[in-house]
Every structure is written in structure tokens, then in C-alpha cells.
Amino acid sequence: MSLLQRIFTPKPDPREAVRPLWQAVVDEARRPEWYARLGATDSVAGRFDMITAVLSVVLVRMEANEELAVPSVMLTELFVADMDGQLREFGVGDPVVGKHVGKLVGAMGGRLAGYREGLAGGDDALADAVRRNFTLRSEADAETITGGLTAWAGRLARTSDAQLLEGAIAP
């Protein structure tokens, strides 16, 4: 390979290694059951609530293994890139998209901390985190979403690290 080819050939994006896991997170957050049966609001805000909740549970699972530290950062970067793309699709322009992404990342960080505490503290603590961080339909309650997140955490716990990175979450 010539020097010019090496210089101008794009390097593979290391985040692609966790793209299957990101897709599994998105697929889980889009499952109709969360909205139809468990009470998440099917709106832009409700979908953001759902993706941050599902992703938070995955990140908490990844924190249990030091070897998953770098993949968890790459997964978070995919979240940021996706939010950037979503904002642009909604018509947010270049001059302010960074500010909006920053706010979304800050919201994600706060929710991650809340869900981390909630998962460690049991169903009541997790339900409190859901109440603080979810836009629920009027007839819904936090306990139904809590049950769904607990089930998701259980599936992740039954998933090996290698399967997790492949996006092959246990049933």
C-alpha cells in the first residue's frame, strides 16, 4: 500500500464493534409493549425516556466488568451520534445542535445515575427513578415500567459479555 493510500484511506470506526449492541438497545426501546402495555408515552419525550432507561440498564450491566469500560464509552458515543442525527432530522440547525446534544447528554447522565441507584436499591428505589425520569400515560404507573426494566436487567444479567457486545440479549 502506498503512503498516500495509507494516509487517505479512512480508518474503521471503532464504535462499529458495539453497533449490534446499540441496535439491540434501540430495538428494545422501540418494542410496542413499553408503550401499549407498560405505560410509556408514545411521543418524542416518551421515546427519549425509553431509550435512556434501556441504555442506562445496559451501561449499569457493563459497569460490572472492567473489560467492558471501553465498549461502554463507545456505546455512549453511538447514543450521542444518534441524538445528533435525530435533532438534525427534527430541523435543529448546526449553530445550536451542539447545545441541544449537550443537554440531552446531561439528561442521560442524570438518568444513568438515578437508574444505577434504583437498580442497586430494589424495586421501590427503581420506581422512584422511573417517576422522576419518565413521561407516563395518565393511566399508567411507575411500577409497570419498573417491572419491565427489572425484566430487562434480568435478561442482561443472563447474557454473557461476548453475547452482550454482539447484541444477542438472552430471552
Descriptive overview:
The chain is mainly α and about 170 residues long. It has one domain. About 75% of the residues lie in helices and about 0% in strands. It is built from nine helices and no strands. The N and C termini lie far apart (about 45 Å).
Write a brief caption for the model.
By secondary structure, the protein is mainly α. It contains nine helices and no strands.
* Poorly predicted regions: none
Tally of discrete structural domains? 1
- Please summarize the sheet with the most strands: none
Our count of helices gives 9
Assign the structural class, choosing from mainly alpha, mainly beta, alpha/beta, alpha+beta, or little secondary structure: mainly alpha
Instruction: Assign a percent range to the helix content.
Output: over 70%
Per DSSP E runs of 2 or more residues, the count of β-strands stands at: 0
Q: Kindly report how far apart the N and C termini lie.
A: 46 Å
The outline comes out as globular
In percent, how much strand structure appears in the residues?
Answer: under 5%
- The radius of gyration computed from the alpha-carbon positions, rounded to a whole number of angstroms, is 17 Å
Q: What is the average per-residue confidence, as pLDDT, rounded to a whole number?
A: 92
SSE ordering: HHHHHHHHH
Question: Could you list some keywords that capture this structure?
Answer:
single chain; 171 residues; 9 helices
